[in-house]
Structure formats: structure tokens, C-alpha cells
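RETRY 2/3 - previous attempt timed out on the joint model. Re-submitting the same 569-residue input unchanged.
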Amino acid sequence: MEGLLPNLEVIRKDFPILERRLSGDLPLVYLDSANTSQKPQCVIDAMVDHLERHNANVARAMHQLGAESSAAFEEARDKVAAFLNAPSRDEVIFTKNASEGLNLVANTMAWAGPLEVSAGDRVVITEMEHHSNIVPWQLLTERKGAELRWFGLTDDGQLDLSNIEELITPQTKVVSLTWVSNMLGTVNPIAEIARRAHEVGAVVVVDASQAAPQLPVDVQAVDADFLAFTGHKVTGPTGIGVLWGKGELLGQLPPFLGGGEMIATVTMEKSTYAAIPHRFEAGTPPIVEAVGLGAAVDYLTEIGLDNIHRHEQAVTGYLLDGLATVGGVTVMGPLDPTMRGGAVSFEVDGVHPHDVAQTLDARGIAVRAGHHCAKPAHKRFGVQSSTRASSYLYTTLAEIDALIEGINYTKNYFKVK
Amino acid sequence: MDLDSLYQEIILDHYRSPHHAGLREPFGAEVHHVNPTCGDEVTLRVHLEGAPGSEIVTDVSYDAEGCSISQAAASVMADLVIGQPVVKALRTHEAFVELMHGRGKVEPDEEVLEDGIAFAGVAKFPARIKCALLSWMAFKDATAQVVSKEDS
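RETRY 2/3 succeeded.
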């Protein structure tokens, strides 16, 4: 099939977990990559090598290992900056995950400063956000007496941009939205929305948690102001995420967490703060996780994000075609694979998503069931939860066949037509 | 993974035709419980009658949205507690909770749990234990609320 990665079998060999046999000696069919991706051997090796040979704290150890560890940590920052096409490496802040990155922005905007959100100001989000890009803005607007508004969704799972002029007004201080929906798969027109937001002087925050794994992310091309993603969805480890921000804007935000590493000098009365990125990295950072993330983005870059994107679209198209052959299955989100990412949420008429996932799991097929931390988007489509299959660069068409067969089996098991 | 040990025929029967479903009057307390990890929800009402200390559960009515396990558990729970003294219903609750947390090693007492013994297999599926307990926890909560209203 056109678009599939040509060396898929070689790529699969990079991921040791794909060899796993599950209960009943069944091969693993991993279709939960939007939840977390699997890790290639090079990421595992980079982390083990760091722990075995170079482990030391960073930026505060005056010895050879400290220098090696600091160099490895800062090299990871260079790799991430290149991955995002960031104008400066200093704009890359390491966080715990994407949630922390989004919370960093939403929290520091509550405090006095040029970017402060005040009473009467407006923050605009969308109805398809992950909870991590809803709750921080609810907290901010509640605390400050500001107004929270959102883009609604069309029936085919796109952002309804018909009222963009009414939503994004001169009182709008922030527009925060996901690039790719973790539930609907929708790819949003970030550059177009950023253009409107910048016309009124609003800051654009992009949740790239689902975009970074599968699209070329160029922060300059889409003209984002802040962008967050998490390491574990881009074949890296858990415990590390990235907040990128335009240098001039990061410089206008007050410090977030206080502590070691983020200061210039401290007296008992007062402190002054380090320049970015360290200003936002209080305490010992996730060092080995950063090393792993650096190896991960190198790995993806070597395969090529354009190639990964094409592979995802080919597999997703095949999945959508397969689901269309199963009676009683309703897909939520765009049905055109060129307009979406690789996460496909669906309903099976008469079988609850938990029961679908449980039955598939008994056949070695891992999917996610529930609200996927996107309760408002589920509510919009009149459902409480859904089953989600999400592919990645290592997914084969045979795995999609196994899923479709598994859904048919599930329907038989629960005796639905 | 033995799917049939989880999805006993009794569970699927209760799922397809749940007993005592729907919200009814009168009731002493209504609670709404959710399983935040999956979104399953139950609104549950409890009606007690009788002198404080010797109340009888005269009705349990509910509106549940969720998987087969959580729906069937609500149905079996209502069967087990309606018409029973509160003290006995809460003992049944304890026996069910013990079964769920027993990692498949607790032998269920059919005298106490009746159709509830079909849930023994659920204890071996950690992700599903909360599904089975959702309505039981709601029942305990609602009952405690009625009793504390009586006390005050």
C-alpha cells in the first residue's frame, strides 16, 4: 500500500516490546500509541548508557561525570530545539510532561506582569481539548475573574470556525488549542487561528502532544507562541515533557516553581532569577529522561516525520475502511484520513467500550476505552465513552486486520447484530 | 485471559435485563457516583423504613450508565439489598467488597451473595474491580446519608 513505511519490518525490530507474547501465547497487537508510544532500543540504550557510565547531577557537579551529564542533558535540549525548528535552544524548557508545560503558562499568566490575564479578559479554548488544556484555563479564569470561551465542533469533528471573529476579540489574551485531537484525530489549522489571534494581540498556546509524534512540527511555520508536548508519546520515556515558547514571551513570564537551578542569586531577603531556560527548571531536572527524549527525537527525525505522517495516514485510512465493513460501528471524527491523525475513536452499537476493550485484550489487542480525558468532546457527540485504536510508525496492516476481526468477535460474544 | 470467567452468563443476563432499574419515589437520599478513570456513572436512590437502628431497605432505584460489569453489579446489588434490614445489607456490601479485593482467592458465600458470586472472576481483572463496586459504593453512601439524617 502506498504511504506505508517501506522498511516496516526493520522498524518493528527496533521495538523489543513488539516481540512480547501475551497471556495465551498471543502476539501483542499494540494499538494504544496515542496513550503512550512504545520505545525503540536506541532510546532504551541511551538511557541505560547514561545511567551506567555518565550519571551525575547537572550544572552543579564540578567533576568529569558532572560535565558529561550536563553535556548530555544540554545536548538533548539542542536535539529538541532542532526537532521543533525553534529559533533558539534556550526557548526549550524541560518539564515533567505536557500538562506541566500548559500549567506553567496558565499559572504564570495569573501573576503580575506584561502577560497577566485580568478580570474581564478572555481565554479561548476548544471543545475538543484534552482535560489538561481545559482545567488549567478554568483555574486561571476562575481565579482572575476572566472569561473562558471555546470553539464548538461540527458534526464531522472539525473545529467550528464560523464565529472566530466573535470569539477571538481584542479582549482575548490567550487562545489555547490542540494541534491534533487525541479523541477525534482532527488536525486543526493552527496557522490560520494563530493569524487571527495575533491580529488582536492574543498569545497562542498549542498542545502538540498528539501532533509531535506524527507530524513535522515547525513552531515558526505555524507561528505559535507557546507549544507543549510530552516525551512518552514520541517514543521517549515518561517523566519528561517540553514547553517551547518564544524567547521574548518566556522572558515576560514570572518564575513558576522556585528552587535550585532557577536563580541567579539568593539572599534571605530576596532572589534574582536565571535566564531562560533555567529560570523555569527549578530543582534537579529529569536528566536521564532528557537523554532518552533526545535519542527519541533523533530516531523520529532519522525516519522522517513526513514519512511517519504518510504511514499514519495510510494505516488510518485502512483502519477506517475496515471499520466501515463492521455493522453497528460509528466513528467519531473526520472520515477522511488526510484530515486526521492516527487516533480513531468509535462506538460499537450494543457493547460498552470497556467490554470491547476487554474482549480485544483477551485476543492480545491493546486499545483504550473510556473518555480519553476528553469528556466534553464525548458529550458533544452524545456519548459517555468510546473505544480508541491508535496506530504509530510500527503499526502493520495485519494488526488492523486483527482489530477488525476482534471487533466482529466481540459483537458475536455479546450477541449483537 | 479467560474471558468467560469474567463474563459469566449471570452477569450478561443482568446486563441485558437489569432488575430494579430506573429512579423511583419515595427516597431518603440520592447520590451520584462516577468512576473518574472511565466515566461510568450511577445516580442511586435509597429508601429506608422502620425505627432507627432497625430500618429496612424498602427500595433502591438507580440510573446507571456504564459497562456490562457495572450495570450487572447494580442489578444484582438491588436484588440483594431490597427488602433486607440495613444491617444485613451492609454486611452483604462488605462481603462483596471483600470478594472484589480478594485477587480471586476469596471463596464467595452463595448464601450471602447469591447471583453476586458470579463476580468472583472480576477480582482477577484489576481494571474492572471499580466497575463492579461503583453501585455498591453508591448504595453504602446513600444509606449512610439517610441514617445520618435520621440521627440529626
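The first strand of chain A starts at residue 21 and ends at 22. Closing ticket.
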